[in-house]
Amino acid sequence: MKKLLPALLALLGLAGGLVAGQILRPAPEAPPEAVEEDYATDPAADRAEGEEKAENFEYVKLDNQFVVPVMGEGRVAAMVVMSISLEVVQGHANDVHSRAPKLRDGFLRVLFEHERAGGFSGNFTDTRMLDDLRGRLVQVARGILGEVVHDVLVTDILRQDL
Coil, helix or strand for 122? Predict the structure, then answer.
């Protein structure tokens, strides 16, 4: 009986661990949305249309990088460094440079909010996370510069744990 009790306790512990593992298992991630391609269109025509659209825009790199502290347990746990460029209507690069301080202020507010929401923790380069961030940056840029802003491009992003 003395030899049987430890074996039973071990089996009971193993069964309990398996049940707990099944209950606490994270939900599976949804598969990425399927990309539907229209094979009836002419790829050369698509390229020509894309080139025509690209000619209407110019890219303006903001002079300095954006540095965002990532807080953890009451202290700075990491630093995120980002370079951002704006895609604007041709001929409006000077508008971007003349309003750069206001753009930086607005962008930093969005980046700090993104950090407080946990946006720079875990898999911070996830497409959905970055698309959300870009969308909010576009809103800020359009609020400052108007509809001349077509898109915000994150050209570099780096996270350094401290």
Answer: coil
Q: Per the structure block, which two tokens stand in for 64? A: 């300095």
Distance (Å, rounded) from C-alpha 8 to C-alpha 10?
Answer: 5
* 41 C-beta neighbours (distance < 10 Å), count: 10
Q: How many domains does the chain have?
A: 1
Q: Is the residue at 14 inside a domain?
A: no
Contact between 97 and 60 (Cβ < 8 Å) = yes
Closest CA to 148 of 96, 79, 77: 96
Q: What is the pTM of this model?
A: 0.65
**pLDDT at 33 (0 to 100):** 61
Is residue 48 scored above 70 in pLDDT? no
Q: What CATH number has the domain bearing residue 62?
A: 3.30.479
Residues of the domain holding 89: 56-161
Nearest CA among 104, 106, 112, 98 for reference residue 83? 104
Q: For residue 3, tell me if it sits in a domain.
A: no
